[in-house]
Amino acid sequence: MLSLFVTLQSFVSSVKGRLSREESGATAVEYGLLVGLIAVAIVGTLILLGPQLQDLFETVLNGVKTANVNAPAA
Asked: Could you tell me if 53 and 46 are in contact, meaning their C-beta atoms sit under 8 angstroms apart?
């Protein structure tokens, strides 16, 4: 009887260990899906705002070039 109890306890322990490992794998998959969704959102935003961002950076670049040309010589 004791041997049956020990076997059953061992089985339950191993099943519990396998289930906890499967949860960590599921968590990794969930994090992967979140990262993918965030990446899609970033790419979509850049596609939508791309021309406006390009104009902004060109304006800043032209301002830096103008400031550099007009700077007094050291």
From this structure: yes
